[in-house]
Structure to design on (361 residues):
């Protein structure tokens, strides 16, 4: 028999396939009531591409706690599933964020089956929860998810499968990001070997290219579009989703935190970076954000302008009056000088006539 891990032309003779067969023969999913580590298996919560998740209760007497326990599924196993589960458990151990389901425990059974337990989020998927919410509340949920994704990116982790089913809202109204099953480190090469959700996969992910933080940002944009379907979406929000879902990764937001900041800016009626508006756009945002202060400021400005115009009018009127009075005074002076001149002329004429008259006794 060939020692090749997967012998070309004779795949069924390769050691990889034979190892998979051995793993398949040993695989057995736990049943309700079975004990796995300190937990007792309850109902099944769901099945993914390679794993099944059970609701489980801690029963070792240390404390009472419900968890979501993840186990490799045996009805449709995939090669490399054990390695994938081990890697997901390792990646989750590095994350600690209020909007990410927390890794609680993990282990291996006596027959070599891996498992791990995370916080059980008793709630519903984010799209179902959002049905009764207004636009602002939906955007707040997406903002929280952006912050969770940014935390994962800060730890070098790309989620790769952000969709409504992987974000559940707990009883306190907090979204919790789940299922890092196809996540990978951002230093890893190549595309994801474990599949993805086509409707929420970025263009480069569908092409089989390497995942990056930009891939998750595209999926966040897609989640935003999903949660606002059927609503009247303002131009600013359309600009945010367009930037997040740009075809070219480099044209998207530089980080999930930057997208969260733009959503928060819209919620606070501040200028949105994705809108790329000019001074009129920013001034309009400022007026709407500070309506009361703007009314007072505008009133004060109008009062000042009105006062300035009134003062200028008064000055002009007084100037005109002074000029008119000066003109009248000047005209009176001219008339007086003319009268004096005429009187003087008449006096000289009289004296001249008197000298020229003949003498008589």
């Amino acid at each position: 028999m060939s020692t090749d891990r997967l012998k070309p032309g004779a795949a069924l003779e390769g050691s990889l396939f034979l190892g998979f067969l051995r793993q398949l023969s040993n695989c057995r999913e736990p049943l309700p009531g079975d004990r796995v580590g300190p937990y007792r298996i309850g109902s099944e919560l769901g099945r993914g591409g390679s794993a099944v998740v059970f609701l489980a209760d801690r029963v070792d007497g240390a404390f009472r706690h419900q968890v979501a326990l993840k186990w490799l599924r045996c009805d449709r196993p995939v090669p490399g599933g054990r390695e994938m589960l081990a890697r997901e458990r390792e990646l989750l151990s590095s994350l600690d964020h209020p909007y990410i389901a927390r890794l609680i425990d993990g282990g291996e059974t006596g027959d070599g089956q891996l498992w791990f337990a995370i916080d059980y989020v008793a709630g519903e998927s984010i799209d179902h929860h959002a049905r009764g919410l207004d636009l602002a509340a939906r955007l707040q949920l997406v903002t929280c998810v952006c912050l969770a994704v940014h935390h994962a990116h800060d730890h070098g982790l790309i989620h790769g499968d952000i969709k409504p089913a992987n974000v559940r809202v707990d009883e306190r109204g907090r979204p919790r990001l789940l299922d890092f099953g196809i996540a990978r480190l951002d230093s890893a090469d190549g595309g994801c070997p474990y599949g993805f959700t086509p409707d929420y996969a970025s263009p480069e992910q569908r092409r089989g290219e390497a995942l990056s933080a930009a891939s998750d940002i595209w999926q966040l944009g897609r989640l935003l579009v999903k949660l606002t379907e059927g609503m009247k979406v303002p131009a600013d929000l359309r600009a945010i989703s367009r930037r997040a879902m740009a075809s070219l990764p480099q044209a998207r937001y530089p980080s999930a935190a930057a997208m969260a900041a733009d959503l928060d800016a819209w919620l606070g009626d501040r200028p949105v970076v994705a809108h790329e508006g000019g001074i009129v756009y920013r001034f309009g945002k400022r007026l709407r954000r500070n309506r009361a202060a703007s009314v007072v400021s505008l009133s004060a400005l109008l009062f000042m302008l009105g006062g300035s115009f009134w003062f200028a009018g008064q000055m002009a009127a007084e100037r005109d009056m002074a000029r008119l009075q000066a003109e009248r005074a000047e005209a009176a002076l001219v008339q007086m000088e003319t009268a004096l001149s005429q009187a003087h002329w008449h006096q000289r004429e009289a004296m001249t006539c008197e000298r020229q008259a003949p003498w008589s006794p």
Notes: The longest helix spans residues 291-356. Confidence is low (pLDDT under 50) at residues 1-12, 16-22. The radius of gyration is 42 Å. Residues 61 and 314 are 91 Å apart (CA to CA).
